[in-house]
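Predict the 3D structure for this chain.
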Amino acid sequence: MEVLVGTDLSVADHGELSVAATAAARLPPFVDHANLQIARRGRDLAAQGDPSSIHFLIDAGRCTGADAKATNGRDRVCGDLPDFEEALAEGDVTGAHLDSLAHHTMGLTDEELSDVAAIADELLDDATSQPPALFDRIVKGRVDEIRNQHRPDSDVEELERQRAASNVKRWTDRDSGMKNTLISLDPLRDESLWTAINDHLATLRQDPEHRDRPFAQLEVDALLAAVSSAPG
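Done. Predicted structure below.
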């Protein structure tokens, strides 16, 4: 804060901009850690008989319910992996890094969480050297390995869960009048659907009559062709 407040960024030279950018990058983790502590202390006060304290983040902090939920997930990660809280406080990792851990470790058993804790140093090294998007893939891979060791049939169980959660929603946009269809599919049925769509898309793109049609319109035509040609 001192660096940013004390620097006139409108006339800063290259060196000052570099220092300011480094300082700015350290602010979000500082705020994320402060929100985590606010939420944690709010729950403590609520447990002591002050239920209003648990709403500090949303009411005074201008956070959404989703923000507050994410903060709770980060708090859980810090409880399981304390070194990550210290790294967050120091600005070495971001809230997004903790979000990945919270997402991919949700629902793990105590034994599985213990295995995650055993590689905490490796995960922290990855988090401090990788952007959140890459770290997310790393965490997913490591957690999947641990889960598969304890639950060899977890992939089958996950596919069954995804199949059960698959659904189709249809609604009309009030402003445009456009019809919207949202299809959520498990990976296997999604692959089957898009294999058919891409086959029809390839055929349409080879047709001279469709040469000048925008690609987005060709995708729509391919989707409709795939649906109409599907076995009844």
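The first strand starts at residue 167 and ends at 172.
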